Amino acid sequence: MNFLMIKPSIVLFNILLTIGLNFHPIHLSVCEMNYNEETKGMEIAMKVFFDDLEDAIVLSGGPELHLFTEKEHPQSDEWILKYLQENLQLKINEKAVKLTWVGKETDEKRDIQSLWVYLEVQNIRKVKDLQVKNTILYDVHQDQRNMLHLKCNGKKVSWLFDIKKISETIHW
What we know:
Layout: H1 3-19, E1 28-36, E2 41-49, H2 50-59, H3 76-87, E3 88-92, E4 95-97, E5 100-107, E6 111-121, E7 129-134, E8 145-152, E9 155-161, E10 167-171
Parallel strand pairs: 1-8
Antiparallel strand pairs: 1-2, 2-6, 3-4, 3-7, 5-6, 7-10, 8-9
């Protein structure tokens, strides 16, 4: 998929997030993955709606998280990581890799409906091929879409996942 074709969708996503509506009419996540040759790691940043992520965790048997409130569950980071590990699966060089937690944040002044989650995969000497399986939030919304922008080995690629298309592979 052409990166330039996706940019208007990202703009629309960010506009809808900053309006501050009590609901969101689209079900979209955005994920950016970057292979850092210097640190030999795959850096992952994902933007998702709070309510959808919290609903997905409850549906998968987890507790209510109450993210970024005084009632936030003390193990919310672990529950988010567990959910993402189950629903964003990567194989690098035909080997399944494990996502590790870096952190999460939100911008309470500008965006009260979504959060950024940061993950990484460490100790990757070289990426010859990458397989991504993305089923994030399909258990919550049948019309969920997940954009993924990848920078790796000097190449930029973007994919749009939906309930009918959950995986992609790239070879270098």
